[in-house]
Structure formats: structure tokens, C-alpha cells
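Minutes, project check-in
Item: structure for the 333-residue chain
Input as provided by the requester:
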Amino acid sequence: MEFYHELQKYPWDEVEAWIESRTASHVETAVGTQPMQLENFLSLLSPAAEPFLEEMAQCSHRLTEQRFGKVINLFAPLYLSNVCTNRCAYCGFNADNPVARLTLTPEQVETEAKFIHEMGFRHLLLVSGDSPHIVTMEYLHAVLEKLRPLFASISIEIFPLDGGAYCKLIEHGVDGLTVFQETYHEDRYRDFHLSGKKRDFRWRLGTPERGGDAGFRRLGMGALLGLCNWRVEGFFLADSGWERFWGSATGGSKVFSSDSMPATCYAPSGSHTSASLFPGCARRQELMSLHLRFPMPTWCNCSPLSGSSCLTPEWFSRRGNLPYFAIIWCRLE
């Protein structure tokens, strides 16, 4: 089932109210619980979890070392083009912004890539604005021919494509796809994305599914903190990964990770976002964490109860155990 239909089952206000209703007792139960259940995850997102930040960090640190050791996988971004046809209220690439526009030639990309390679990076992320008339498939294929000898892994963070195009990019050496939904609040999404292809909420939401079907080894997903309530965004981000890429035909054999949670919180100009609504940007980032990772879980694929409200104790009991959730806390000792 397309995740868009899953999204419709959870009214934003109900999720927000459930998170706000969590208490310190709920958080104490949630910290360290294995396997992680959705109710526990909501407790960790709640305001009641803030006094437990250090305890969560220590737990996360232990889990991280247990699974990955003292290792951080570094990648470098390489921007191909800042030409963009979208008009997003928060973005410097906004088509209306009077800035100089540049698209690197494949030869210029190779020059930049060699410099990055000399710095020791072997994982590369290609980034561009939404400009399919400039960053064409032919252009991408030419770029990839020059990059493949230099890097062990190449990922893309460009405009959403269809499944056939993703298959072609995989054939040319791309193994990872990153896409930010920005916000899972469909109505507010339109407030921030004023025109251009990116205004199509549903097309963007389905991008990870198309990528999973095409066969990418890694799928990166994220929300842009600051557009709407970050706690609710965290719920939908986690649920989107669990629903789509664990226990589903789309991505049951894939590795899902959210490797690029934005470290910057944006407050767009105008009346879209109130600065007083989401205070304490640094604190918010600590609680949301830099990364969410989902190790191989025991998955119980249960459908929620029908009715006007899915978020009930009975729903949680039927939902079953969810993939284990761990906050990755970078702390090398």
C-alpha cells in the first residue's frame, strides 16, 4: 500500500495530543525498552523526555558501540547545480532569489571530486536543485562515468524521479538515495512550497518507495525541523520507514536509515512559522538526535483498528513490536 494512504490514518492533531500526554513514568518505561514499540517511541519524543536526555544519550552510546563500534561513516556532498524551478519559502535555491546560478560541467565535477578524494573521502553525495531540464539523465550518466573510479559509494539527493530513471542510475553506479519530505503536514507543506514540481506532496512522499523498488542499497529520509511541530514530524518520519521498508515487498531486504537529519532549524520569513512555537533549536536537535537508525528488527505487520482514532491502547497492542529505535549519539572516548 502506498504510504500516502497510511499517512491519512493518523490525524496530525491526534498524534500531537498523544505525544503531549506522555508523562515521566512513560519515558522511564520507554528508555532502554527492547524491542521498541510505537507507544515507547512517542514517549521519547514527548516534552516529558527532556529531563532524560543524558540517560537516553548514555543508552544510545552503548547501543551504538555494540552495533557499530567506534566508527563514523563520513561522506562529502558535491553540488552539481543550484538552478531550481521550485519556489520554497525557506530555501536559498528558490527560483525567485536573485543569486548567481551555476551548473558544473562533467569535467568540473571530476575536478571537484578528485579534490574530495584526496581529502580521504570515499563516499560521495551528489546534490542539485530541481532542474531536470539542466541536470538531465544524460548529464548524470556522464558525471557518474567520471566518478565511479574514485568512490566506493555514490548517493544522490536531487529532484524525485520515476522508477525507471532510478534503475538507470543504479546501472551507472549510484547505490544510495536521499530525499527529505521537509514536513509530513500536508496542508502546511503547500504553505512552504509555493510552486514548482516540489509542490506535489504525494509525488515526493512516494520517492523512497520508488527508490526501494528500483533497488537502491541505502535510502535516506528526513524532515526539516522548524516547519511544523518537530515531535510529530519525528513520529511520521519513523513510521514512514517502518511501514515502507520493514516487512514490506518494497523494501524488506533493504537497509533503511535516516542519515541526514538537518542540523539547522529554519524559520522562513513571513507568517508561516512562529518563532515562539518551536523555541530551543539546539535542545530540539539533541532530543530528535542527529540520526535514527533501524537495525534488523522482528517485524509484526498488523493493521490499525478502524474508526476515527487509531491511537488507542488497543491499537498499540495489535500493532505489535516495531523495529528497534536507537538514537545515534556521536561520542568517541
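Outcome recorded: The two ends are 44 Å apart (CA to CA).
No further action items on this chain.
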